[in-house]
Amino acid sequence: MVFVLSNSRLMYVSVSSRPIDTEAFIRIHDEAFRYFGGSPEECVYDQTRLVVIKEEFRELELNNRFYQYATMAGFRIRACEGYDPESKGKVEAGVKYVKHNGLYGESFSEWSELESYMKEWLDNTANVRVHGTTGRKPFEMYEEEERMHMRPYFTPECVNKSDVLIQRKVDKTGLISWGATSIRCPWHIRAQALEWKQLGQGL
């Protein structure tokens, strides 16, 4: 995953040996914001299901777990239009730079070696080179112009939370569907759910 700040072009890169799920996606954001020393007001994403579950007429159904993290971390989510790579902006060039400059022709005997290499490459190459567009070094430009606009970032509790909440509907007979099994919901929970429904809040 590649993160690029839009003004200074300061970059953070994370590598993963497994497909990235929502929990890993959140942890990598946490790593990036701690590397930057703050979080931006807004993050722009493509149509990954880790962020957008469904889009219809620009009405977005967001990944609830990631939306919870973004809310607690204090940044807005903006999703690009589907099949519109140009709207992703500066990060596309960043991805190419990582592939062709950071990783091209390299080989690693173990995963920890790759992780160490990427950290060193960020600090000693990617973020200290003179950027082709800005004509300045990302680290220097960030310190002089961008850091002051970043929001303070503290790792939210939900980042290390192992018990992910899963929503289930209770039917009118008091049963909850779990896989191929139906589980009877305790009476006090059913009574609370009925009270919420009567208040017009739904289930």
Describe, in plain words, how this protein is organized in 3D:
The chain has 203 residues and is α+β, with helices and mostly antiparallel strands. It has a two-stranded antiparallel sheet. The protein folds into two domains: 2-160, Nucleotidyltransferase, domain 5, CATH 3.30.420.10; 167-203, no CATH class. The two termini are 36 Å apart. The mean pLDDT is 83. It has six helices and eight strands. It is 37% helix and 15% strand. The chain is globular, with a radius of gyration of 21 Å.
Please sum up the structure shown.
The protein is α+β, with helices and mostly antiparallel strands. It has six helices and eight strands, in the order E-E-H-E-E-E-H-E-H-H-H-E-E-H. The longest helix is centred in the middle third of the chain and has 16 residues, at 111-126.
Helix content: 25-40%
Low-confidence stretches: none
Radius of gyration computed on alpha carbons = 21 Å
Annotated CATH topology of the largest domain? Nucleotidyltransferase, domain 5
Main pleated-sheet profile: 2 strands, antiparallel
Distance between the termini: 36 Å
Structural class: alpha+beta
| Strand ordering within the main sheet | 1-2
Quickly count the helices. 6
Number of strands: 8
Question: Overall 3D geometry?
Answer: globular
Q: What is the strand content?
A: 15-25%
